[in-house]
Input
Amino acid sequence: MLAQQFDLTKDYFAVLGVPFEACDKTIKAAYRKMARRFHPDVCVQEDAKTRFQEVAEAYEVLSRHKQAYTRARGQHQSRTSQSQHDTFYRSQSWRAGSSPIRGRDRVMTYPLTLRYAIRLLHQGYFYLPGIKVKMKFNRDAFEGKTFRIPGKGYPGLYGGASGDYLVRFNISKESLSWRLEGADLYGEVKVPACLLVPGKKIQFESPVGRLSLVVPQNYQQGKLVRLQNKGLPCEKHGLTGHLYAKLVAA
Output
């Protein structure tokens, strides 16, 4: 598949729910999850076949032509943004010679997986490659709020100030066997049956990193085990959410 044959209007990273810098292993894992979810033989949604084909197309492109697609789509977005920018100023040409015209704001949306977003939250910042700026990354990103970087949008005309750079994050609320509810994380942890013994220490991988827990004395199959303060920080109240693990015999 040649670069010029890509459908540059489609964001294949968003289709698979992975960040644009995702490695091949992450892309493959996301594809398998989405393919199982939307396979026409198991999914009852009316658009299952279409969604399944979109997932397959996204994986075909990103697994074989990721660099070429990323480069071509970046150029396409730049041309589209510049065209919109030029159209706006042509519509304002009657104001030439009068008061300065402020530049338009530039709006960008970044798709992120839950695991990657949590890593950024602990890191505290997100690097914007387009304008080479580090911006603060906090819980507001999970609420769909818009971050504003002053003066980093399109330049103004006739001495007008530049617009702002507006950033939004499209964060998947699910990551493989985990989901986010408020500041709390819920997920399944597969454990060998021989280890599901009260008092036994178990280590497992979670979206917040590698954790360990001790099987409670009164543990029952399917019951949630709470790990206090292992969820996401809740800045409004100065508290941290919890992590709830459901131990499942492998």
User: Anything to note?
Assistant: Residues 12-89 form a domain with the Helix Hairpins fold (CATH 1.10.287.110). The longest strand covers residues 184-191. The longest helix spans residues 48-91. The chain has three domains: 12-89, 106-172, 176-249.
